[in-house]
Amino acid sequence: MNETYQSTTSTPVLELEDVQKSFGAVRALRSGALRVQAGSIHALVGENGAGKSTLVKIVAGVHRRDAGVFRFKGEDVDFGSTADSKAAGIAVIYQEPTLFPDLSVTENIFMGRQPLRSGRRIDRGAMYAEAKSLFDRLGVDLDPRRLARGLSIADQQIIEIAKAISLDAGLLIMDEPTAALSGVEVERLFQVARGLRDEGRGLVFISHRFDEVFALCDTVTVMRDGDYVGTDVIAETTVDALVSKMVGREVGDLFPKVEAPIGDVVLQVEGLDRAGIFHDVSFEVRAGEIVGLAGLVGAGRSEIARAVFGVDSYDAGAVRLSGKPVKKHDPRAAVRAGIAFVPEDRRKQGLVIQESVARNVATVIRRGLASAGVLTGRAETRASGPWAAKLHVKTSALDMAATTMSGGNQQKVVIAKWLATEPRLLIIDEPTRGIDVGTKAEVHRLLSDLAGQGMAILMISSELPEVLGMADRVLVVCEGRITAELSRDEATPERVMHAATHRDDKEALPA
Amino acid sequence: MSDLLVEPSSTSHAQRVIGGLLRSREIAVLSVLVALILVTTFKSHGFLFSSTGWRDLLLTPSLLLILAVGQTVVIITRNVDLSVGSILGLTAYLTGKLFSDHPNLPIVAVFVIGMLFGAALGLVNGVLVAWGKVPALVITLGTLYIYRGAFLTWAGSDRINASDLPKDFLKLGTQQVLTIPVLTIIAATVLVVVGYVLYTARSGRELYAIGSDPDAADLYGLPVTRRVLLAFVTSGALAGLAGIVYVARYGTVSSGAGSGIELQAVGAAVIGGVAIFGGSGTVWGAAIGAFLLVTINRALPILGISDFWQQAVVGALILAAVVLDRVLTLRQERQLVEARDR
Amino acid sequence: MSTPVLDRPADATTYAAHAHPLWRRALVTPEVAVIALLVLVYAWSNANVANFDNPLTLYYLFLDTAPILLIALPMTLVIVTGEIDLSVASVVGLSSVVVGMLHHDAGLSIPVAAALAVVMGMAAGALNGFLVAYVGLPSLAVTIGTLALYRGIAVGLLGTEAVTDFPDKWTDLAKERISEGSSYPMVLVPFVILLVLFAWLLHFTSFGRGVYDIGLNSEAAHFSGVNVELTKFWLFVLCGAVSAFAGVYYTLRYGSARGDNATGLELSVIAAVLLGGVSIFGGRGALHGVVAGVLLIGVISSAMRLENYTVNVINIVIGVLLVLSVMTTSLLGRARSLAARARGGGPRPPRRRNAVAAAPASESSTEDSGTQERHPE
User: Fold this and answer.
1) Which candidate, A113, A269, A400, A484, has a CA 20 to 30 Å from the CA of C73?
2) To the nearest whole angstrom, how far is the Cα of B55 from the nearest Cα of chain A?
3) How far is B159 from A295, CA to CA, in rounded Å?
4) Is the dihedral of CA A184, A186, A192, A198 positive or negative?
């Protein structure tokens, strides 16, 4: 499996040692380290908040490090911009690539470097031919003349990789590339990656998915809380060993789900259907229960939640809260019925980040705060204070803008906003994505308490340990359908992953 | 049909060209223009088949065409230039003054000076937008006021009349080469040069990239500031050229010269398929749009519609164009997504 | 473990309501800067410009800027949501024509004709609102189209004619003062009523909070239950209605209904609103700044006119003021966000895609890239 792994005596493509980076008062990196050999695929793992992203951004030239060693191909470097790192031969493929939608895929690859004929005219024929040969090399069937608009994320990533190859990148960093890919697309990506490795390039693969890390990579570096923890050869380590390095404590301590009495059915979803997105979705959530929606990214879980809450519409089916039907495609009606929805992307969907804490927390309840038709800032402050306090939101004043706060604090503001509506059902999508470990534990404790007090909770999470630790029942979604319903005891990582990747196969769940 | 969107290379070259033409916005607008000309000529043969008819058909839209081309370059980068009307007026007056004060100045020199002058005014816009990071709408709104105010202050109650201008220059206004008016040839040259650069030069393609996704352009390392500056300088220079053409055509410059023409230029571009969000559209489409707008104005009286209704027709066309664009974009996106899900 | 969350005593953590003292919050704002500038310019003009302190000056100032004062109110809300309405002047013209024709040709009384004109304005605004909010078209393009369409209809209906036979009773009312010898014309009464209404709507209602939310982050507003489409729709309808009312006033004040009345007025309105501290990007601004902005332009124009400057120089000054005010806001904003980032804030807020304020590409890539918006991990 690892024949191409080079010995440690040759110069590594990338060397980072003792790298530090702070953003104001926040220490993002305390002792970042990474060493990547040419002709190898190196995994970088760590929890959210471990510092991986910051490290990558320093390599990419987005940030400048405060201190530490940074060597590329044996030479000390200090990139002031992404253009510099690109020129040096470093390519980064992000989770969500940004291409120019109005231009062809070929122009996206060659923009600014298009091949020229006489008189500085662009040689379109040569450009298309070169793009075609790149695609053939990557084993991809894309038409070079096609517009970039409408490409799947997987194909967009291929374009990015094609770009990297045409720039003859010595180092490719892939940041959570498989998050939005289907099984087939993941396989294709891996083939491409192995091909690149065999050409002598260095690759860095950042992922949360251990099965992929173990299938693809030669070596792995673990980070925790901004520190470098250690490097291992994949063949010589196990998932558990990596996880305990990542977490620094026994996995079991993480998710303090308290036993809670399960009450009546609060949410009933029947035959929910939306063409092409989800199909025949039916489930229930009871008071005091935490139901986890597990599955791969892109399976349709957030879409289902949004349809239940009314942000999106649905074609067929019904949603009922405590027996009463909830009007579809009407978030205010859902709120009136007693549903709250903490969305997946807190910056784009959960908060109006330039607004103050008080205004954000009071957003959904502000209609009721007006006296004699007049709504004052004071009323908002008075109403939002207690909720912010209950969640221990850290802020010096309630009229501070949410931009000044950490991700964890921002998440607390969003949760406070929705708890203020005193809902009976809380839908929460990726409750702890992108927040630091300490706040993560707080959020989990909070959810546990809320369930204990009789709230029904529907939790969507892509982190398997979180789902397994918190949920009383796990519903697994695959390509828009619910493929398994597992009780807390029945739910194992294998069973969940199997159901998440096999849409039609309901019986043969591994033991 | 969606194969052309997803797999254009799999169709033969001929198929690709024809298919592209059939779905092209430029051809659609051209067809409307041709239809309009035919219908109007049917009612009054002189509209097309007389020496003045043919000449005016080509001559009158030339001014707006030049402005529409310049506006397109700016809109492609996701900006807008509302100051072109004022630049036109200011340059027209400058032209008149140059001729009346230095009657022996070669005409070519006046063209060069006028365009440089316009380019300088455009540079001011560009610096404020690209560098100051302030939206173009506001900046060019401000310079619209400033430049027109400067024009009117400088001119005072003075007017440029035909008597102030050299005969050779005035002749340009109606002179024809092989029945094609000289001013139209100038406009066509501008169109071809700019169109060519946008199609075949790296800097031209980068303009499209910047308008298509400014963040991606930045991440890509494209010289965004320099390109946006270039776009505004081009727009200014072309507005300057339009000012000179204006003087040649009308032989007179009054305080209202060019007032309001900026919105017509934007309208022409929008009708011609240039997306107001930037990133797509061609100067050919904008040119046809300019032709269409001006020809409508001239055709309405012949068709029995008071030409007071011209602006209403223009407005309706702009709305139709924008709605059509949206419908088509949604449909195209759906087709592209469906194709990939197959 | 610990006390269940919802049982924690509410005042376990007490927060300051405000980060800064009252004086700083109230005074260090762009609106106050404009108001201060207005006061300064007014005081200076009073002292130094001959005839400025004549009661007639103020009277004519209000009479002339009344349409801009009126239309600036709903325009502020439209711009705060991140949209724009360039068709307002055309609605003024069309309303003028409608009043003229209904009165002259259909023999309707002025109040009835005026009411119908306002209804027409609402319909005009509704078309804008429908196309922008429900069809999803960019407001810049739509209102350029309706600018031409509505003006075109106005000119098409009346041609070059003008209706001028309006009853003295009404044309006098348009110019009448509140009381004998006062500087304040009657038109200020409806203006003040509308000002109070719009101020309440924007600053003291949930609807108004929604307007700001839409301007800052319409997706988040949608997720929080704000009806983004309906809000935008109503704002355009309001714009049309108030513009039509301004058209009625304009007609009666000048005693003439013409298709080309008020051409170019939209630029004055927008310039005044932006001068008043409203951000073209949406999401920030306040009405007291806007009113000061309109009056500032009016005072400068008056003073300069009395000093025998031509309209043209006045326009230059307004243009320069506009550019300076927007640049200052932009530079201050950048300085503030850089300071916040240095203090430890997260990456920039999500970029708003917006053809009105089609901002040029983001700053140098040494700052956070736009694609990965996560807090540094």
Assistant:
1) A400
2) 35
3) 75
4) negative
CATH no., domain B26-341:
1.10.3470
Q: What is the pLDDT of residues A97-122, one digit of tens each?
A: 889 999 999 999 999 888 888 888 88
Please report all neighbours of B, defined by 3+ CB atom pairs within 8 A.
A, C
Q: What is the mean pLDDT of residues C118-128?
A: 97
Of residues B237, B203, B208, the one with CA closest to residue B223: B203
Do the domain assignments include residue C120? yes
More confidently predicted of C90 and A119: C90
Query: pLDDT digit string (tens) for B188-236?
Result: 999 999 999 999 999 999 999 999 999 889 888 889 999 999 999 999 9
Q: Write down the pLDDT at residue A84.
A: 85
Residue C205 burial (10 A CB sphere; 0-12, 13-18, 19+): middle
Supply the mean pLDDT for chain C.
84
pLDDT band at C330 (very low <50, low <70, confident <90, very high): confident
Per the CB < 8 A criterion, the answer to whether A483 and A476 are in contact is: yes
Residue C140 contacts A where some CB pair is shorter than 8 Å: no
Q: Among B121, B231, B249, B230, which Cα is nearest to B174's?
A: B249
Is the Cβ pair A388, C17 closer than 8 Å?
A: no
Q: B7 and A146 in contact by Cβ < 8 A?
A: yes
Determine contact, residues A245/A224, Cβ cutoff 8 Å.
yes
Higher pLDDT, C289 or B45: C289
Give C111-137 as a 3 state SS string. Answer: HHHHHHHHHHHHHHHHHHHHHHHHCCC
- Provide the domain limits for residue C91: 28-331
Contact with chain C for residue B20, Cβ under 8 A: no
How far apart CA C70 and CA C292 sit, in angstroms, is 13
Task: Indicate the SS3 state at residue C91.
Answer: helix
Cα C352 from Cα B85, distance rounded (Å): 30
| CATH classification of the domain holding C112 | 1.10.3470
Domain boundaries, chain B: 26-341
CB contact under 8 A, B315 and C313: no
| Cross-chain residue pair B205–A114, CB shorter than 8 Å | yes
Query: Nearest CA of chain C to the CA of A226: how many Å?
Result: 8
CATH of domain A14-99+151-248: 3.40.50.300
Asked whether the beta carbons of A459 and A294 are under 8 A apart, the reply is no
Q: Residue C3: CB partners within 8 Å, gap ≥ 6?
A: none
Contact flag A150-B339 (C-beta cutoff 8 Å):
yes
Q: Please list every residue in chain C whose beta carbon sits closer than 8 Å to the beta carbon of residue B228.
A: 360
Single out the residue of A377, A414, A376 nearest to residue A393, CA to CA.
A414
Q: What gap in Å lies between CA A69 and CA A55, rounded to an integer?
A: 12
pLDDT band at B74 (very low <50, low <70, confident <90, very high): very high
CATH of A250-338+424-511, one of 2.40.240.20, 3.40.50.300, 3.40.390.10, 3.90.1170.30: 3.40.50.300
Positions in chain A short of pLDDT 50 = 1-7, 251-252, 507-511
> Two tokens at B202?
């790296």
Strand order of the β-sheet with A67-72 is: A75-76, A67-72, A14-23, A26-36, A227-233, A219-224, A40-45, A202-206, A171-175, A90-93
The complex's ipTM works out to 0.86
